[in-house]
Write a structure and sequence with these properties.
Helix content: under 10%
Radius of gyration: 21 Å
Order of helices and strands: HHEEEEEEEEEEE
Structural class: mainly beta
Number of domains: 1
Strand content: over 45%
Shape: globular
Number of strands: 11
Strand order of the largest sheet: 5-6-7-8-9-10-11
Length: 244
Amino acid sequence: MRAFIAFVSLCLPLLAHADCKDRFTQWANALQPGRTVDADHAACKVWPENPAQTLAVLPLPQKGASEDQTVYDVEVLVADSNTGAVLAHQYQPSAITSDAMALESIELDTAAWRLTPQQLAFGVRQTFDGSSRVNPAEQTQLSLYVVEGRAIRRVLGNLTTRGSNGEWDGDCAGQFTDTSRVISMGPAGHGGYATLIVRENTVNTTKTGTGDQCKSRSKTTKRPPVTLQYDGSRYDVPAAFSGD
């Protein structure tokens, strides 16, 4: 019987997770009264390393959005998985612009981003998709956050983990580039924070011909690993890797 009760207790946060999307409005009213959440792009997820807590990202469209552009303020928060009470948050004004590169999705990355033995980070991935058929483009950016009391601090900002673009004739012929980056944890550096090692892989593809005679040729190149050092407040993202 005791084992059954313990099992149920462990499952309660997971059951709460099933309804976390129902709390978007509750969280917005608590943090930004009167603001509307773009629920189609908002995200929430129980933190696997601490199931008693739920992570969430709330994009809040600014007033005056045009047909071609929407600017979002963003609330990143940690809440109690059972009650929904906000435990910590960070408000980011004008954090996302959705225009020709439109916001496609926001996802929470809960891999084990252990920056120090005591400090665990969580990630937020934003994906943007271009609107042009003959000039396709897509980009995914990763940010990492740590919780400090009732505050949340961003320690890595908008590092592009995947970017693709191309130009073609709409039938076959064209040039395409697809770059992906993988981040792994390195040895401890400044302040005991782990260095971040970024490995990059790029595939350049050329297509020639028409219709059923379309032929494709690809070449893969790898950049030597790049190490990002913590400077005491954040990891500096090289311009070549930045989605800002």
